[in-house]
Specification:
single chain, alpha+beta, Immunoglobulin-like, 3 domains, eight-stranded mixed beta sheet, four-stranded antiparallel beta sheet, 20% helix, 37% strand
Length: 421
């Protein structure tokens, strides 16, 4: 199974699809009778010998000789490979494993491994253990035999306040040839045109892709995503999920269909907008689990089609929600800056006023001390006080006056200032 980035639940207040949670709803709306392939039976009685052939399903192709064949013992409940044996095909693509052991709850899988494409067969209780057949194919780099049988997008719900939606998609794919498509990833000229490309609305995020195709890579490109997984003959399903944010009340989606589209379906919750496009028409309203959905559909789109699709009248936040979001999410920085600035100005004003008041009080105290020294000198000169108490009192008044002058050091110093007389 091809997979990229599984979903999660709510994150950061924005809804994000959990892919498996909406599969049942999507399949019900699309009326798909065939889902992904069911798991193989487990717990079968295991014979000691398993033999068979690797066949070439391409017309005129020879059965591979010397190809590696693996016998894997799987504990699918634990998601582990608990046993592995290897052999090589002989004449006519024949192979054989001996001394095979299995057990309750284990599955045996035979895999033909040619390096890039690894078809496999799971063995069940009713399998013919002596005639296991694994089909491989000649390779091709041509996409001519691959086409899209259906392309469907479902919007389960819309977050009006955040103008965002989670989207689930289903893409039906068919290879009606007899070769397996494998891109040459070592080719330096390989471009997106050489890959399986699928269109998504511009600006999508949180893409998740799952499919029943063989293992491969998922690559996000500007217009959607591309797969490098091998595509053997047969029909396959691809499930995608992603987030999409829109502006205003809608958006345009130029749907590119490089592999055509047997049927295109777009599904919206009833009453939450409209969707239209060239070659599309309103089909019906379906109710699933007490929820009504509007379906717009179109058929027979040829390879290389470009369908301009318009989503309109999508819900948005109410006026009250818009005002709240503006204040809370957008305007909080200037408001905070203004508030902080006003507070800072107020604090500076208070500090300046306090400093002025303190300076004024200091000057008054200093003036009183200087006047006291002058009065003391007058008393001494008038013989009203003896020399010893005069000197002691004058030194005390002088010390107190010096302490009122600003300067370095505890209690102030006399450097850079004039001392009182």
């Amino acid at each position: 199974m091809t997979k990229a980035d599984g979903g999660a639940g709510w994150r950061g207040g924005v809804w994000r699809i959990r892919l498996s949670g909406w599969v049942v709803l999507l399949l019900a709306l699309l009326a798909l009778s065939d889902g992904f392939s069911a798991g193989a039976a487990t717990g079968q009685t295991t014979p000691s010998i398993i033999s068979g052939r690797v066949l070439n399903g391409t017309a005129g192709g020879l059965a591979p000789e010397g190809m590696e064949v693996l016998l894997l013992t799987l504990n699918e409940a634990a998601g582990q490979i608990v046993g592995r044996e290897s052999t090589r095909t002989g004449a006519g693509g024949r192979f054989e494993f001996t001394g095979v052991s299995g057990g309750e709850g284990l599955t045996l899988r035979v895999v033909a491994n040619d390096g890039a494409y690894t078809p496999s067969v799971d063995l069940s209780g009713d399998s013919d253990w002596s005639n296991v057949q694994v089909v491989t194919y000649e390779r091709t780099k041509s996409l001519d035999d691959i086409s899209v049988t259906s392309y469907s997008l479902l919007v389960p719900s819309i977050d009006a306040r955040g103008r965002s939606m989670g989207v689930l998609g289903s893409i039906g794919l068919i290879n009606d040839g007899d070769t397996v498509w494998i891109p040459d990833l070592s080719d330096p000229s390989l471009t997106g045109l050489d890959l399986l490309r699928f269109s998504l609305p511009e600006g999508y995020t949180d893409l998740s892709v799952e499919s029943d195709l063989p293992a491969g890579n998922v690559m996000e490109i500007g217009t959607g995503f591309a797969l490098s997984t091998p595509v053997p003959p047969g029909e396959f399903n691809i499930l995608v999920s992603f987030l999409l944010e829109y502006e205003g009340n809608g958006f345009d989606f130029p749907l590119n269909l490089p592999f055509g589209g047997g049927q295109v379906r777009l599904i919206l919750p009833e009453g939450q907008g409209s969707v239209s496009g060239d070659g599309l028409e309103l089909a019906e309203t379906q109710v699933v689990n007490d929820r009504a959905f509007t379906i717009v559909t179109g058929d027979g789109f040829v390879r290389g089609s470009r369908v301009p699709i318009v989503f309109a009248d999508l819900p948005g936040p109410s006026l009250a929600e818009s005002v709240t979001d503006y204040i809370v999410h957008r305007a909080y920085i200037p408001i905070l800056a203004w508030s902080s600035g006003a507070l800072l100005i107020g604090l500076l004003g208070y500090a300046m006023l306090r400093s002025r008041r303190k300076s004024s009080a200091t000057m008054d105290a200093r003036r009183e001390l200087v006047l006291a020294i002058a009065a003391l000198d007058d008393r001494y000169e008038a013989g009203q006080i003896d020399e010893e108490p005069y000197k002691a009192e004058r030194e005390d008044l002088k010390r107190r006056a010096l302490e009122t002058y600003p300067g370095p050091g505890a209690g102030g110093g006399e450097q850079g200032r004039a001392a009182p007389p």
